[in-house]
Amino acid sequence: MVDEFAGNGVRFRYPELWELTEQQNEDGVAMTVSGPGTSFWTLQLFFDAPAPEHVISQAVEAFRGEYDEFDFYPVSGELCGRPASGGDVEFVCLELINSAFLRAFQTERFTALVLFQGTDTELEETRKTLDAITASLHCDSDDGGQLEGS
């Protein structure tokens, strides 16, 4: 079974047995979906709409400040039908290799950051699910109309 989140101008689908939390913060709002292990998927909405490149830069700096063994691989593409900046991060934590995937895009209402991560061993099982959550992400159209697809 699949659950769906709809609110804050976005909607996405996620596995029924995964836990969804929504948290307001000083920058906006974050929705996080957590699996049974360490893998998780987060969508952070910044209502002051900073440039996507700035959001990615800040996220990368946070990883760089936290982990000594760290690599960043820039990528670009599209998300929610909009150009997306981003990159893939590899880092070592508790002697485990971990990967994080960062993508940011902008609408007229907000800048969105999609972040998902897990240990490389766990991602062998959860990566398809995390990619599917990302692929299911839909955003309000900039003109306030119907939700549009990715």
For the sheet with most strands, the description reads: 7 strands, antiparallel
| CATH architect. name | 3-Layer(aba) Sandwich
Number of helices: 2
Distance between the ends: 21 Å
Give the strand tally. Answer: 11
**The first-level CATH class name:** Alpha Beta
Instruction: Compute the CA-based radius of gyration.
Output: 15 Å
Spans of at least 5 consecutive residues with low confidence:
142-150
| Mean pLDDT over the residues | 89
**By helix and strand content, what is the structural category?**
alpha+beta
CATH topology: Protein Transport Mog1p, Chain A
In total, the number of domains comes to: 1
Quaternary organization: single chain
* Inertia-based shape: globular
> What portion of residues is helical?
10-25%
Strand content: over 45%
CATH superfamily: Mog1/PsbP, alpha/beta/alpha sandwich
Written as H for each helix and E for each strand, in order along the chain, the element string is EEEEEHEEEEHEE
Question: Order of strands across the widest beta sheet?
Answer: 3-4-5-9-8-7-6
